[in-house]
Amino acid sequence: MNIHDTSRYHDVHARSMRDPEGFWGEAAREIDWIEPAKKIFDPAMGLYGRWFTGAVVNTCYNALDRHVASGRADQVALIHDSPLADPAAPSTVTKLTYAQMLHEVQALAAVMQDFGVAKGDRVVLYMPMVPEAMIAMLACARIGAVHSVVFGGFAATELATRIEATRPKLVFSASCGLEPGRFVHYKPLLDEAIRLSSVKPDGCIILQRPQQQCELVAGRDHDWAELRRNAIAAKKSAPCIPVLATDPLYILYTSGTTGKPKGVVRDNGGHLVALKWSMFNLYGVEPGEVFWCGSDIGWVVGHSYIIYAPLFHGATSIMYEGKPIGTPDAGSFWRVISQHHAAAFFTAPTAFRAIRKEDPEGNFIRRYDLSKFRTLFLAGERADPPTVEWAEKQLKIPVIDHWWQTETGWCIAGNPVGLGMLPVKHGSPTVPMPGYQVDVVDEAARPLPAGTMGSIVIKLPMPPACLPTLWEQDERCKEAYFNEFPGYYKTSDAGYKDGDGYVYVMGRTDDIINVAGHRLSTGGMEEILASHPDVAECAVLGVKDAIKGEAPCGFLVLKAGVTRAHAEIEKEIVALVRDKLGPVAAFRLAITVARLPKTRSGKILRGTIKKIADGDEWTMPATIEDPKVLEEIEGALKGRV
Ligand code: COA
Ligand code: AMP
């Protein structure tokens, strides 16, 4: 008998398609509702229908209170592990039990209420990977406030855009973040963002970290520790505020095809149900076990699998403030897994490529007892077969690629460990999860036969947890996702399915690139390049990078009459992207060229430039205006990539 025969996957997926309301209604029994749903799915509501309409619930209650009430009070909810907090120690570990976490969240939620934060108000977090970030997110959920976390690697301008769009009552931030060899000074970035934004928050709650403190702005900034101390001394404790299942839990901005990011909205009810379902059925983890997601709280993967899902499930979550290599070595992942007995670990392939480069023989792996470690999950970018093969060989456990988007909040296609694994095919994240009908279509939305590349789309309605809309932008949401292929959600990923229904996700159909598992818009970067006074025209594209998968590369055409040294301008451009977008862009390469290759209708031939930069085979496009330009590009790239 092969593993395929023992998997319940096919039956379960078929049922979710045949009877979605029955399927998700049953999954919803795992959640404690204040009032049950009037309808499991209401097709008349929202842009494509809404899940669990009329239900009343509280996300924080399901993450904390119910576990404290049912015997998990003394179980550890969060293990925070930081190899960066104290350079003299291998790592600094802080643990909070479910009861301690609840106590902290109740107090902080009460503090927020004292600031006038109420149901539906927005709260921005711009924070490093510290337990207080989790406490703040759960405190928002407790009182029905809507959090919007901004990744710490984004610059002030990006933070300002998000403050402007969400109009937060409060901002949570910290004196510093810790990156290897440097502090991230959040406070000056926050001050600048508030200066740039026409919307000003009522207050900022700042965590002073011992590694480096910051100045507080009188009247606006408040010391987190002091507020906490006073609230606890006064025995302040906020109860859970009932919200509708369809009310927003959070807004998470992600790169769109223009410079303006898209505010993906996540609701309370669908998110609870889908994420809870996934913990055992997809990740194969039982309540009480330790789950480690090595992402950042600023990304969707961090929201779902550092903060929420492990706690919905009564598991223990690990939050790691370190890197796969260099903190201090390529063994840090194995140290964390072994020290904290993680049963499953979830990270991005880029992290494995970094480890493999430093430790190709896997010598660090054998220094640790990994006997509790059952499964490795990869997502965030395509898991390239050589990386998966290396990880399988070294770890001797299943390595599971699964495909996600910020918009979906959880896995679209994966290999369901709890239902029984299907055979792994390298290069494929396996099969659609329940509720997802994944099709590959042509431009006219006609399904394509197996093996044929096309646009990957999801048949509407999307399952619970997927975005109901973009924050205050219903029209943009329809335009971005629903209009091009009627009846479908457009993933903007291209790929194919094989004869067994396995999905292969090969790349994006828009201008999004994936740099070290981080989603970035080249269009957004082009806007920054074009803002430089010497730049007449530009193009940014993702070129192959051995560790990060892709790295951005900018081509510049300078204005006539600019006589300054090209190298100087290129340096300014690199600094400009870091300043405007942030270090996360990893933008290090700007190349000046005399002209850009274009079609006769004036379109820049990005695809051909990319092939040349990647060293791939390329053919002369029939529509090219002047074939000589490609030779110039080849020349300019020599020695630069
Ligand atoms: N706050 C501030 N700056 C940050 C940051 C944060 N939270 N995260 C990253 N940065 C900075 C880095 O310090 C770096 O700055 P530098 O240019 O001064 O060196 C820059 O942003 C680029 O970071 P990154 O692309 O992450 O490169 P890296 O060299 O620091 O690390 C990897 C490379 C592969 C080790 C790392 O990217 C990694 O672990 N990626 C996994 C990503 C992941 O888990 N994604 C979630 C999807 S599952
Ligand atoms: P994000 O919204 O940041 O999670 O990025 C989503 C995008 O990352 C997807 O649209 C894909 O292009 C890419 N991606 C994520 N996971 C995978 C995967 N397992 N295989 C291929 N691409 C992936």
Q: Could you characterize what this model shows?
A:
By secondary structure, the protein is an alpha/beta fold. Among the domains are: 72-78 and 94-317, Rossmann fold (3-Layer(aba) Sandwich); 516-637, ANL, C-terminal domain (GMP Synthetase, Chain A, domain 3), CATH 3.30.300. The protein is built from 19 helices and 31 strands. The strands form ten sheets. A seven-stranded mixed beta sheet has the order 5-4-17-16-18-19-20, sandwiched between helices. The chain has a five-stranded parallel beta sheet with strand order 7-6-8-11-12, sandwiched between helices. Strand 14 (248-254) and strand 15 form a beta hairpin. The radius of gyration is 24 Å and the shape is globular. The structure holds coenzyme A (COA) and adenosine monophosphate (AMP).
